[in-house]
Amino acid sequence: MAMIRWDQSMTTGVDTIDDQHKQLITWLNDPLAAMSQGKGRAEVQRLLDDLGTYASTHFGHEEECMQRYKCPAAQANVAAHREFVQIFDGFKAEFEHGGATVYLLVRIESELMRWLTGHIRRTDTLLYACVKPLAKIA
Question: Is this prediction's pTM over 0.90?
Fold first, then answer.
C-alpha cells in the first residue's frame, strides 16, 4: 500500500485545516511504515486514539469554517464527516472485540486513506473558492 503525501491539490485556503490534514496523513502513513518493519500491530491502538481525538476536534472546526465562509459544500461536508465516524466506529469496535490484527490495520489504512484523499480533494477543497476572495479584501 502506497503512502500518501499532502500536496497543493488538497489546499483549503485555511491554514489550520490544511495543517490538521497534514497531521492526519502523517498518522495514517506511520502505521504503514511500522508495518513494513513488523511493528504495525502496536500502532493500531495509537492510531485509533489519535483518530478519535481528531474527529472530535477537526471536524467541528472545519464545519464551523465552512459555515463562516458560506461554503456551498457545508452540508455535504457534515454528511461526509458522519460517514467517517461510522467507518471509524466500526474499526474501533472490531479492534475492541478482536484486537490488533494485520487485516484490521490494512483495512484501516486503505479505507481511511481512500476516504481522506477523496474527501479532501472533492469536498474540503471547495472551501478554497470561498476563502480566497476574502483574502484579497484583507
Answer: no
Is the Cβ–Cβ distance between 58 and 20 less than 8 Å? yes
Buried b (16+ CB within 10 A) or exposed e, 27-36: bbbbbbebbe
The three three-digit cell numbers of residue 135, written as one number: 483574502
Look-up of cell digits 467507518 = 87
CA distances for 101 relative to 27, 29, 35, 95, 120, angstroms:
18, 17, 11, 8, 28
What are the residue ranges spanned by the domains of the chain? 14-137
Q: How far apart are CA 134 and CA 129, in angstroms?
A: 9
The three state secondary structure string of 24-87 is HHHHHHHHHHHHHCCCHHHHHHHHHHHHHHHHHHHHHHHHHHHHHCCCCCHHHHHHHHHHHHHH
Residue with grid cell 480533494, as numbered in its chain: 121
- With residue 121 as reference, give the H or E element that holds it: none
Q: Which class does domain 14-137 fall in?
A: mainly alpha
Mean pLDDT by 10 residues, the chain (138 residues): 84 94 86 68 79 91 96 96 93 89 81 89 95 65
Angle formed at CA 66 by CA 19 and CA 60, multiple of 5 degrees: 65
